[in-house]
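Predict the 3D structure for this chain.
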Amino acid sequence: MFLIDSANLKEIKALIKDYSFTGITTNPSLMAKENRTDFLHHLNELRALLPEAKLYVQINAETLADMLEEIKAFNSVLTPPYVIKVPATKTGYALMRLASNAKVDVAATAVSNFFQGLEAMQAGANHLIIYISRMIKHGHNPYQLIEDLRYIIERDQKAITLIGASFQTPEEIKKAFLSGVHQVSVKPSLLEHLFLTPLSEKSVKDFSKDFYARYQRTHIKK
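Done. Predicted structure below.
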């Protein structure tokens, strides 16, 4: 349900210590932000953090030939399960067809209108990634797009995952879920705000205080 949107090993290790996630998403900007030159080794380290979950790695090339070369590079170092993120562009659709025919798990990324989503499905994408905040910033309605694509997916009984990404607030994440996304990709700085609240923390402290007052101990013993 929740994906960590980061390429920072330290941040991810801290999160998976306490919380459960279905995968990690990266993109060229997140990878470059870590100021490392060993790109493929870096990906492999990310892959090892959650061995049973999916790592989403994004194509950076712009030509079809270079995109195919990148997929070969990913395949040479990564063990399944992982997903290749391909932009919903003219060249990207061509790559999706080739990759899906080769049984590569493909996510169409930066889907921002209904027909892009349909073409990505037809081209063989298994996942559609919708950038919520980015669409809102440019005057589009991502929640209606999610509802429309979810309707097609369910009507045609397609095994496609809708993923919301590019979030700035918890409310955007909530609206995305209620609109029909199956998963959300969230940056680490926002994730902690989703899972912890002062009300829950206070309730636990009150329980502990009452327990200690009665039994003079901090936990239950046999």
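The chain has a mean pLDDT of 94.
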